[in-house]
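pinned: reference chain
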Amino acid sequence: MSTTEFFFKYQGLGNDFIVLDRRQSGEDIDADTSRWLCDRRLGIGADGVLALLPSAAGLARMVVHNADGSIAEMCGNGLRCAVKYLVDNSGEKPERVEVETGAGVLSCSPGFGSDGVAQVEISMGPARLVAPNLPSGATQTPFLAAPVPGHPGLTGHAISMGNPHLVLLDQPLEDASRLGPVLERHPGFVDRTNVEFVRVDEDGLTVVVWERGCGLTQACGTGACAAAVAAVLAKRRPADAWSRVSLPGGDLLIRVPSDLSDIRMRGPVAFVFTGVVPDAPGR
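pinned: its C-alpha cells
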C-alpha cells in the first residue's frame, strides 16, 4: 500500500536540494532513491537530498545524500535549506536552532524576511588540518601548500570541514571541469574529496568548486569555508574578519578565527516549490 509523501525543494545560491521530512518514520532513503530523485530528467532534479531524521540533540538529524547516491558528512548550503524548512514550519521565530549533522551538532542563527527565513548564519565548527579523511590522516602532518602527488606543479591545502577539501589557491578557475574529476578521486583522500579552485581578490575570494558526488555546482558552503581557511593560513586574507567568497551562484560571507576553532558562514536561502514524491520506477 502506497502512502503520500511530500517533498520540499530549496536552494542556497543555486545549490538546490530536495528536503524529505522523515522525523516521524525515522527511515532514511537508499542510494538508488537519491540518484532517482536528483535526476533532472527522470526525477525531481537536485544536487542532493536532505533526509531529516529524529534527533535527541537538535531539531533534526540531517543526512546529506549526493546526486550520485553517496553520503556527505556535511553541506553548508544544504544546512541553510534544512534550517529554513524546519523554522518556517515550526510557527516560531527562534534566534538560534541546532541541527545534528555528520560533522556534529551545529548551531544556526536564522535571519527573517517577508517569506520567513531569508538567510542563515551557521557555526560550522572547527577546520581540521589533521583528519582521517585527509592525507594527513596517514602522516599526522598537515598538508598545507604541499605538492599534490602525481600532479607536477600543483600545490594545495587539505582541510576538513567535517567533509574533505583540497584547496588550490591561484589555480585558474576554468581548470575546475578538467582537473576536478581527477582530483576528486586522488588516492590521498580515502573518501574522495571536494576540490576548490580559488582566485584571491583584493576584497575577497572567487571560488569554483568541484563537489564530491555532484560535480560542478553553483555553490558549496563547506567549500567556501575551506577556501577561506586556506587563504588565511597562507596569509592572503585576514583572520577574525568577515570575507566575501564569490561562487557562481552568488556570495557567501565567511569568518575564520585565527585558531580555526569555529568557522562562521552567512548566506541566503530560498524556497523553490513543493510536491508529492512520485512512485519510484518499477515499483
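why pinned: The two ends are 11 Å apart (CA to CA). Residues 76-88 form the longest helix (13 residues).
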